[in-house]
Design brief:
Elements lengths: L4 H9 L20 H16 L7 E8 L4 E7 L5 E6 L6 E2 L6 H23 L6 E3 L9 E7 L4 H10 L2 H4 L3 E7 L4 H13 L9 E4 L2 E4 L3 H17 L10
Parallel strand pairs: 5-7, 6-7
Antiparallel strand pairs: 1-2, 2-3, 3-4, 6-8, 8-9
Length: about 240
């Protein structure tokens, strides 16, 4: 059925870090329809992993809001069905996910809560917390710089979290720069990354004091707020000063 056992091992037993994908691409990619993604995934699997005369089929493809990917059932003709994923631009294939016990338990206990609160959270994001595409000067003690993409789910998650920061930390300013549709802001991001001796790998990208983060997760938020508290207590540089 498979061309060789090595490819079978790679395809179905490797642990892919799907849950930890925390950043979007540098630019917004054209999304495939579910039908296009299904056809592309089937062709990829059959061309690269199945022997002549055997074929894999994909069923039940859906838009998985939790991961921002297309989720589908993969039938290999062996009596088993595998939950797999493909990115909406059709460039990344994830043969397995949720196969880490701790994460599976966490997801099972939080899915209902997440589903129930997502709509209200999205509708109550406080846009007034952000100063979009402004200059680098600030009269606050701490300046936070967020470079994001309109349509990037990880960016929206971070913006939702950040919308409460100015209430919790009134002496901070959050400067935001949308990069997927604004070429000037994209150039600013590249310049800022260079000033921090790094390169742009994706968005969101956040700068606070002498630190930066690519992507967003709960652990990253904790690191960011710890850095804010450190800066409020001891002071830190305004990242924009590196661009002057």
């Amino acid at each position: 059925m498979f061309k060789n056992s090595l490819k079978k091992t790679i395809l179905f037993t490797a642990v892919f870090s799907l849950i930890f994908l925390s950043a979007c691409g540098i630019k917004k990619e054209k999304e495939l329809t579910m039908e296009e993604a299904q056809a592309k995934a089937e062709q990829f699997i059959n061309d690269n992993f199945m022997t002549s005369g055997a074929s894999a089929t994909i069923t039940n493809i859906t838009d998985d809001e939790q991961t921002g990917l297309y989720k589908f059932s993969l039938d290999l003709g062996d009596g088993q069905s595998y939950d797999s994923y493909i990115s909406k631009d059709g460039k990344e294939f994830f043969p397995q996910a949720y196969n880490i016990a701790e994460l599976e338990q966490t997801l099972n206990t939080t899915t209902d809560e997440t589903t129930a609160t997502t709509t209200s959270e999205e509708s109550t994001i406080n846009e007034a917390s952000f100063n979009e595409s402004v200059d680098y000067a600030t009269d606050k003690k701490v300046a936070v710089y967020l470079f994001w993409g309109d349509g990037c789910p990880h960016c929206e998650s971070e913006r939702m979290a950040m919308s409460d920061w100015t209430t919790k930390y009134p002496d901070i300013e959050i400067k935001t720069y949308e990069t997927w549709n604004n070429t000037d802001n994209a150039t600013k991001l590249e310049t800022m990354a260079k000033a921090y001796n790094t390169t742009v790998e994706g968005v969101p990208m956040t700068f606070i004091g002498d630190k930066y983060w690519v992507g967003y997760s709960d652990d990253m938020e904790t690191e960011m707020t710890n850095k804010i508290e450190e800066c409020l207590k001891s002071g830190c540089e305004n990242p924009g000063e590196r661009l002057k």
